Amino acid sequence: MTEQHQFQAEVGRLLDIVANALYSNKDVFLRELISNSSDACDRLRYAAITDEKLAKDIVSDYAIRLVIDTEPRTLTVIDNGIGMTHDDLINNLGTIAHSGTSKLIEEMGKSENNDAIDLIGKFGVGFYAAFMVADKIEVLTRKAGDKKAWLWISDGKGAYTIEEATKNECGTEITLHIKEDASDYLLEDKLKQVVKTYSDHIDFPVYFGKEVDGSAESLNSASALWTRSKKDIKEEEYNEFYHHVSGGMDMDKPWLTLHWRAEGAIEYSNLIFIPTMKPFDLYDPKREHGVKLYVKRVYITDGVEGLIPPFLRFLKGVVDSQDLPLNISREVLQNNPVVNKISSAITKRILEELRKKAEKDPEEFAEFWDLFGAVIKEGLYDAHQYREALNKVVRFKSSNSDKLVSLDEYIERMPEGQQHIYYISGSDLESLQNSPQLEGYKAKNIEVLFMTDTIDEFWLPVAYDYKQKSFKSVTKGTAEELNKVVSDNKDKKKAQTSQEIDDTAKNMACLITKLKEIIGDQVKDVCISQRLVDSPVCLIAQDSGIDIHMERILKKNQGYEDLSKRVLEINAEHPVIIKLQTLIANNSSPKTIEDTAWLLLDQARIIEGDPLPNPTEFTKRMARLMENSLL
Questions:
Q1: Which domains, ranges and CATH numbers included, belong to the chain?
Q2: pLDDT tens readout for residues 396-450
Q3: pTM of the predicted model as reported, rounded to 2 decimal places
Q4: Beta strand pairing call for 420-425 and 469-473
């Protein structure tokens, strides 16, 4: 009985794009089919170790075979791997299981220039790419351990059929009915060239013909790339293996390739890649890392929890251990001491390589940091064992440099008397650069780091210090320590003595009292500022309170109301404050005094990006002051 099925909507749209878009290189369809066959052989090889029944289903050595039939114009890719059941066919070939792929297709559908973009480089389209060269595809498959075989057929136009079939061996045969304009894929020489170029790294031999005798020569080297010496591997081979382990058809090259073998108490080989493109699901809490675990060249599983820390979840590649049992379960892996030791060693190696890259090529590292910096900083919050190494890697934008700054560089540039690593946090870099809270620090030539990632608000409170220098927000607490810093910019912001500070406070006592009287229920306190130079006022958080940006994050994501009132700091040397003080001292223009007090508070709120509680009153006060100024 033949079943009729419709493709999932996203698959139908993807197939339409594949059929009608222009691609720079169609060869990659064969790479994807061979990669899928290789994965199927890998999975059966591992499954047979733990299930003796499956071992009985294996009647020949693992291999991938290509069969050309010129009369019906077909190319068949055959493997003796794990195979698929009826439901596997529906789930694997009729559905895009990953929501991220669906999202990317939706975004691509909005593009006005689809035909100019190589979708093979954007989606993990895998199997579906075969419709670039075929107008009909048949998939004959039998799952290892099952007696039933199934035949899946589709022309790629929105529907497919499934019916029960006959197949003697487990595995899968994918038959492509080649289009007229793709006839070169019916030539042996063409297929040899494609296999050698894209699939030489596959750990299973690729042959021509349905039946392969002992004298047949494989089209590829058929050796696991990570087991070979680095000096014998070309960059192109690394790139193709990167595409293979990516699980899709990404056409980007790896940003960094790390290939090494660890020997000693624990032996394992590693071939790890850092991508040049940010995965679309990088911040998906369900995302697993892309490093596959092998044991003695046998694929075990991917996404092993504990093998790669979450802050390096963008990594792709292979780890092959010699010290784990082949029949180890995924549950045991997660708490295995060997896995823990391998994980620690890999993480330290990756961080060390990143440190070297940052120092050797800071411009190229800046591009990497723009993509993955926020993720790496997660380790400062929840991976304390790597904090020392992470502190050597992390980079920041700052008030004193157009380039990224390391913590060591920051400390080297600190002026005499500076005891803290100063920072300001917020979501918008330009707003931070123009923040009034920075004025006193700029005047003293004190560098301030810009913290623009949400994770910064979480790791900074637990970081405590770096090289005996504590982290301090310039929007929180007093800035009295500025007077202790010896600056070259003395003409811009002179240091005040304790007596001068006390005198200023006494002179402004009436002003502060009046401001508290007018706006006191809106702020925690009103005080003289040590950090303002050009602006009349600013808002800061209490020293024991929550930083301003952190409070904004909690309000946005947790639905919290204001957790604490802020302190209004005033610049005693600003003309507006001086004139306001004169009006108060003379006990004149009470309405002007009140309007000015509220406008100063609203000005501070606007600079912080906070909504005004009463915009109507704000405009009325502004209008009255403008009217008086025009008299």
A1: 3-216 (3.30.565.10), 227-367 (3.30.230.80), 395-629 (1.20.120.790)
A2: 999 999 999 999 999 999 998 899 999 999 888 999 999 999 999 999 899 999 9
A3: 0.78
A4: parallel
